[in-house]
């Protein structure tokens, strides 16, 4: 579906959608944050044009990889730019290695004339990402698919340890929980002083209101509903189901959740220009909520 045009559906539906964009769009490209394969395929169908996903960063000055012409497989960022070379470096603490089956996995490292020379007047930071052989260590975890296609699967830079020594990749878990019907945005937090994760969720207000009406829950306003124990339990239960479906490990499940009406935005300082969560700022912004969740978990553990 999406590879073979349907004249009937084009006439009835999709030509009208294409007309909204002027009717002459033939090509879309996507970068910054990944598109889910379902969304990419949906866009192909709706707009009747090519939708290509690419991968790059400021430090590479240009695209590191891009889907090739005629490649109809979704869920990857294409093959390497001819102006650079890419290798995957083992990350043993996250169990990613070049010997992984069925696909080699590791940190994406890039070298070539498109790579920057360093951060301005910041030699220490430069040495953290640019090694002596000129390889840029991106902090992204990738794997090689057949045909030389690169797929981004995780992040290395934001990993942290829990109290029992387990390594956590919060962005991986947030991407899983993004499929939860209640969740508009999600921030996963943990640290080496605690043995479990907690979640701050910017809720989909319409879904939450529909759920409350179905359950017969009365509330004065949405803020009261977000603080309702039953509502929080329902969201956490849905998150658990999504987590099991994605085969998260036991320590990767959030054990408590706080529901927020306010979205994460650049205006409130919680998102970068590329819509990634500013983790340090989010930790400070939600410090009280995080503290309260861990206090509740401690009380719960003590009572049991």
TrEMBL record:
<dbReference type="GO" id="GO:0016020">
    <property type="term" value="C:membrane"/>
</dbReference>
<dbReference type="Pfam" id="PF00501">
    <property type="entry name" value="AMP-binding"/>
</dbReference>
<dbReference type="InterPro" id="IPR000873">
    <property type="entry name" value="AMP-dep_synth/lig_dom"/>
</dbReference>
<dbReference type="InterPro" id="IPR042099">
    <property type="entry name" value="ANL_N_sf"/>
</dbReference>
<keyword id="KW-0067">ATP-binding</keyword>
<feature type="domain" description="AMP-dependent synthetase/ligase">
    <location>
        <begin position="9"/>
        <end position="120"/>
    </location>
</feature>
<protein>
    <recommendedName>
        <fullName>AMP-dependent synthetase/ligase domain-containing protein</fullName>
    </recommendedName>
</protein>
<dbReference type="GO" id="GO:0005783">
    <property type="term" value="C:endoplasmic reticulum"/>
</dbReference>
<keyword id="KW-0547">Nucleotide-binding</keyword>
<comment type="pathway">
    <text>Lipid metabolism; fatty acid metabolism.</text>
</comment>
<dbReference type="GO" id="GO:0004467">
    <property type="term" value="F:long-chain fatty acid-CoA ligase activity"/>
</dbReference>
<dbReference type="GO" id="GO:0005524">
    <property type="term" value="F:ATP binding"/>
</dbReference>
């Amino acid at each position: 579906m999406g590879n073979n045009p349907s004249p009937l559906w084009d006439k009835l539906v999709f030509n009208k959608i294409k007309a909204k964009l002027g009717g002459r769009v033939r090509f879309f490209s996507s970068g910054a944050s990944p598109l889910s394969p379902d969304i990419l395929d949906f866009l192909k169908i709706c707009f009747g044009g090519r939708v290509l996903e690419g991968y790059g960063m400021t430090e590479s000055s240009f695209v590191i990889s891009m889907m090739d012409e005629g490649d109809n497989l979704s869920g990857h960022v294409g093959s390497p730019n001819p102006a650079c070379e890419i290798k995957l470096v083992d990350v043993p603490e996250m169990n990613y290695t070049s010997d992984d089956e069925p696909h080699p996995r590791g940190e994406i490292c890039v070298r070539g004339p498109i790579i920057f020379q360093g951060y301005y007047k910041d030699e220490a930071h430069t040495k953290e990402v640019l090694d002596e052989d000129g390889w840029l260590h991106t902090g992204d975890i990738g794997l090689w698919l057949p045909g030389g296609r690169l797929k981004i699967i995780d992040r290395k830079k934001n990993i942290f340890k829990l109290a029992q020594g387990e390594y956590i990749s919060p962005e991986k878990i947030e991407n899983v929980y993004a499929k939860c019907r209640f969740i508009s945005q999600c921030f996963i937090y943990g640290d080496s002083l605690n043995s479990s994760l907690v979640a701050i969720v910017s809720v989909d207000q319409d879904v939450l209101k529909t759920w409350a009406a179905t359950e017969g829950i009365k509330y004065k306003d949405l803020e009261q509903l977000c603080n309702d124990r039953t509502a929080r339990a329902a969201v956490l239960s849905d998150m658990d189901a999504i987590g099991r479906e994605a085969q998260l490990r036991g320590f990767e499940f959030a054990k408590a959740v706080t529901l927020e009406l306010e979205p994460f935005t650049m205006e409130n300082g919680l998102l970068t220009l590329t819509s990634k969560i500013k983790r340090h700022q989010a930790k400070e912004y939600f410090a009280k909520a995080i503290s309260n969740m861990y206090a509740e978990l401690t009380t719960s553990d003590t009572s049991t």
